[in-house]
Structure formats: C-alpha cells, structure tokens
Amino acid sequence: SVVTARVFVLARNIDPSPGHEDTRTYVLGHVADAALGTGAEHVVGPFNDGYKRSVFQETVRLQNVSGRRLSP
Question: Which residue of 1, 39, 43, 70 could cross-link 30, Cys pair, CB 3.0 to 4.6 Å?
Fold first, then answer.
C-alpha cells in the first residue's frame, strides 16, 4: 500500500575544487526501525576531500497499477 517514496541523492562534482575540504556531514533520510516505530538519521561523511557535494530530496508519488485510479 505504498503510495509515496522519499528519494535522497548525494551529488558530487566531477573534479575536485582547489582549496576546498569537505568536512560536512550529510543526512540522507532515516533508517527504519520497525521495533521502535522510529528511525535514526542516516548520516554520511565527512569525506575530507576536495569535492563539493549537495544533497537533494524529493517525494515522488507511486502509481499503484492494481489499486484505484484517480479520475482527471
């Protein structure tokens, strides 16, 4: 019965930026914990390199082919 999904993308430059040191941490959603009903943040980094990074997130609607259809 899933109708939406949250998608996280961590994008990195192709080439390193001179003088830049990536010391940030990036949150890419939450790790599901069915026992507790909650989840801890999924954190990556710091990478400590010369690449610039950005996190993008989007919630997408999934079309359930076996479920009800929305009328236009």
Answer: 39
- The answer to whether the peptide bond before residue 72 is cis (omega within 30 degrees of 0) is no
* CA angle, 64 then 65 then 71, to 5°: 85
Return the DSSP state at 59: E
* Short-list 19, 41, 45, CA closest to 32: 41
Residue 22 has a CB neighbour count (10 Å cut-off) of 19
Residues 57-69: pLDDT tens digits? 999 988 766 666 5
Single pTM value for the model: 0.72
In whole angstroms, what is the distance from residue 46 CA to residue 31 CA?
19
